[in-house]
Amino acid sequence: MSDAPDPLPPPDAAEPRKPRKGIYVLPNLFTLAALFGGFYAIVMAMNGRFEQAALGVFCAMVLDSLDGRVARMTNTQSAFGEQMDSLADMVSFGAAPALIAYVWALTSLGRWGWIAAFVYCACAALRLARFNVNTGVVDKRFFQGLPSPAAAALVTGFIWLMTEAQIEPEQVRWVMFAVTLYAGLTMVTNVPFYSFKDVSFKRSVPFAVIVSIALGIAVINIDPPTVIFALFVAYGLSGYVLYIWRRSRGLQASLISTSTDEPDERGLHK
User: Fold this and answer.
1) Closest-CA residue to 251 (of 230, 232, 270)
2) CATH number at residue 218
3) pTM confidence score
């Protein structure tokens, strides 16, 4: 019997590295800035400045999309950053849009108004919690349900558009009710929404792509509230279009890969 030590396992057999527990300044600065955007939006809504409130949520969206990319580019991912990001998202894309919608129009609906606002807020919390626990079983190319920033954009984008058009909240309060419920409930469905996570900023792209981006920016500048809201409405409907298309072809519609370690979950994501 040989006394030679056992050979080391190949690199591929090593367990995936867990997020580090340290606190890194750079990505968390972006997360804190996104949190401030949500807090600013709430304060502006309390003071009746709904256009600034909507802009605060949209600024939080931009900053939220950057913190993860900055962490990956600088190799500063951490468990603390992941938890911090979820908490900031709950404020900026859960509580803030619900409160803004309630103060702007839903308060005139009485109990129906606060029910709609609560449903949205609760669905945002459920969506973020599910995202955290399903990270390892969801197809990275798609979100399971409408992402909370897009849901917030639907709610606050509608308010921004109506405010710019000088339409009184009482005239569209039931539309606000429907938009709030739609955004909230769509967050907790299994409908797939393209995540754009497979888009790489490190690869070279054709010149036409740069021209298209420039044209897109120019179009948005023509009428920002209308164009931005229209884009998020299209995105908010795109998941259902993809869902119906995959169903019609007999494919798994939700694109969720179920875990073999949890047999009770099989059949829940069809």
Assistant:
1) 270
2) 1.20.120.1760
3) 0.81
